[in-house]
Amino acid sequence: MRAFVTGATGFVGGHLVDRLLAAGDEVTALVRSPAKAAGLGSRGVRLVPGDLANRAALRDGAEGADVVYHAAALLGAPNEAQFVRGNRDGTANVLEAVRERAPGARFVQVSSLAAAGPSERGRPRTAIEPDAPVTGYGRSKLAADQVVRESGLRWVIARPPAVYGPRDRDNFIKIYRLARLGVAPVFGDGKQELSLICVPDLADGLRLAGTSPGIEGGMFFLNHPQVVRSIDIVQTIGGQLGRTPRLIPLPRPLAVGALALTDATARFRGQPTLLRPDKVNDFFAPAWTADPAPFMQATGWAPQYDLHRGLELTYQWYREAGWL
């Protein structure tokens, strides 16, 4: 199988490339920094320097592909317009290249549960409910999904929730470091219900999205069936560290102020951030859960890492890598 991967040096994309290589696929990767991607090149990945705005590089990468995995995404931006340019317009550029150079390829859109929006407690989202994103990032991913649906290509949309695991620099590492200090901030009462996915399970699922018959034109949620609460994550991490972190509930007004300060600081420094004021809608939603059963039934996918096993894998990797 000849695969073209965008976002191959990122957290999810890097694990996806590992999975594709293990399966014997020929992999071409779009990379913004060839130096950062040198390790991929040494493993036989064909590197195409460029980004989502470089149409020539995208055409080169897509040439002759059997499947295209679009894992690149803009996660932080100063405003919603830039989220849209990075996620919707970048996706449109990849689709254009695929139509020109690999029109028969399957296109796997690595979307996000953020594009669907939050759920109600006790009622995981299904594919039949209307999308209702609550952040600029989520709306930009939904706009990208719509471009995919209208592309005329053979597409599959995969929507994972929060992703964690080895090499994660953005999510659970912060909780580990705070828990080690004996504190654990939680939004609201800590009972927000969550679906999660450990990154090796997601990599397996994405490859199945690219190879399983009969699923084209489908939108699927990719997450472990287990539903956890935000407080469960904190308590499990504390147990790994031999600590009982003191929970610090963050009320909504305090969170709004903290996010506004984070956003203002990022603007001052000229840095993008995902922690914009509208992120409060994410943090204080009653639940972010989804039903993975349709994808599991259609592909035979069986995620292996529930919260306990996934955090054990993550913790061991953090320790071995010297991050804790």
Task: Please describe the structure with a list of short key phrases separated by commas or semicolons.
7-stranded parallel sheet; 324 residues; alpha/beta; 12 helices
What is the topology?
Blueprint: E1 2-6, H1 11-22, E2 26-31, H2 38-41, E3 46-49, H3 55-62, E4 67-70, H4 80-101, E5 106-110, H5 136-149, E6 154-159, E7 162-164, H6 172-180, E8 183-187, E9 193-198, H7 199-211, E10 218-221, E11 227-229, H8 230-241, E12 246-250, H9 252-269, H10 280-283, E13 287-288, H11 293-299, H12 307-321
Parallel strand pairs: 1-2, 1-4, 2-3, 4-5, 5-6, 6-10, 7-9, 8-12, 9-13
Antiparallel strand pairs: 9-11
Helix pairs in contact: 1-7, 3-4, 4-5, 6-8, 8-12
Brief overview, please?
This protein has 324 residues and is α/β, with parallel strands linked by helices. It is built from twelve helices and 13 strands. β5, α5 (136-149) and β6 form a beta-alpha-beta unit.
